[in-house]
Structures are given as C-alpha cells and as structure tokens.
Amino acid sequence: MTRVLGIDVGGTKVAIGVSAADGPELSAHVRLDTGPDTLARALAAARALDGAPAAVGFSTCGVIRDGVVRLAPNVPGWEGLELPRLLQEAYGATPVAIDNDVNAAAAAELRWGALRGVSTGVYLNLGTGLAAALVVDGRVVPGAHGAAGEIGYLQVTPGEPAFADGRVPLEERVSGGALAARGAALLGRPVTAAELLGGGHAREPVDETPGGDPARELVDGTLRTLAMSVANLCVVLDPERLVVGGGMMGAAELILPRLTAEVGRAVPFPPEIRPARFADHAPLLGALALARAAVA
Asked: What are the tens digits of pLDDT across the range 216-236?
C-alpha cells in the first residue's frame, strides 16, 4: 500500500501523520502548537516524516473560499492565507486534497467509522467550537461557498448580533469554549467545559441559592439550546444517522440522551444517533482519508 500524508491545522495545534494502509492506523505522527509561521513549521515537520508521499490530505480550521482561508481568525496569519497555492508550490505534482477540519473528520467516519455505508447523514462536532458536516449520497456536501454545516452562525434569538456584527451566535452559547467562558464568569474562577459537564464544579458561596445551582442551570440551558438546534438541523436534512464527535463527547452519557430525546420529540423521522468512532485525531485521520481518496 502506498504511503499518504495527512496534516491537520486546528485552533491550538497542528497534527501530522503518515499512513501506509487504507485504515485509521498511523505509522508515524507528530504534533506542533499553532503560532507564528504555522504553515512553514508544519510543512517542515511533514517533510521530516515523509518527503515523498503519494498524496497529501490537508485539514484546516475555517473554510477555503476564492483560494484563501476564511472564518479562521484564531490562528495567527491564517485568515486570508492562500493555502491552495502554497500547498501546490510545496508539493508540485503530488495530489493535494484540502477541506475544513469538521468535513475531514466526517470523511474519516465515512471511510472507516460510524458513517460508513450511510447515504444521508450528519457529523456533529462538539468541541472548542461548533460545526457540522452534511453527508448526501455518501459524500460530504461543501455548499456553494464551502461553508455548508457552519451551524455556529445560526441565530438563537431573532435579530441578535450575527455574522455581519462579527459574532457567531449559536457557537457563543453551546460550544465547549463558550461553556467554559460562561462558567468562569458565573463562578468567578477559571473552569473547563469538561468540569462543568462532569458536575465537578465547586459551588461558591455566592452561588448557593435555595433550590438552585447556577452552574447546573447553565449546563442544562446549554444542552437544551444544543438539542433544539440539532433537532432543527435534522428536520432540514432528514438524515438516516447523526454521528456526534469532538472533545465535549467526554460527557457523552450526559449529552447523547438529551439529543436523542429532543430529536425523537421534534423530528418527523428521527435519525439513529451514534457517538463517533474516532475520539482522538479525527481531523488528522480525515486528512489521511482525503489523501487516500486522492490516490484512488
């Protein structure tokens, strides 16, 4: 089997891996932090792993539009980067496939995981950010501008500040990053989404009101909004299966029953709901799936 290379650039890290088999196994991999000169450092590390891959898959935060990266303000120097041109210059005649990180994770689930054999489906990523990948006819749908599934931009309240105002309304309410920020403001100390979802938050004296736990109420409201939004997405697409991945799935036993209940209540033909197969390295494995498809 020919070797392929995968590169995943996320908001905080770069993961690079090589695979010599058509499966989710890595023969070598390395991780870097994002920061100044992210692309140059990533390409140097990739060359050190494999200088002559049969194909390259590249997973990136944001989306590619008109030959540049959009909707990726969190990585220094990434917004507006001419990524396709730079990768073509770096790899010449070697096939290079590029997609956003959530679509890439869905590609991994389609090829090797919980979406395998599914014609119409949704991959939902619950991580620091919030996004989905839409699957139709067994393929990830990019949309007219490469931004299909960017559900973080959905509005929760009519007329609220939205994309044109520099806001991401739904993501600012229900993502892991949003939950941590709102929890820290509520408790007056740093707190992680995992801590809140696991019920491990400390109850500060100021928060102890009769019959109430503000942190638990925050989690409950977050999950209600998330479940409503996911149900609405399922009404629109009518998927046969919804696969849920991302860092927040460390609390799958709390999240999945809430999603299942609301989807079952609100969707005329509720999809099967499953956790993603790949909890770790999903976008990197997706980059390898893109590379493997490019070889084929």
From this structure: 999 999 999 999 999 999 999
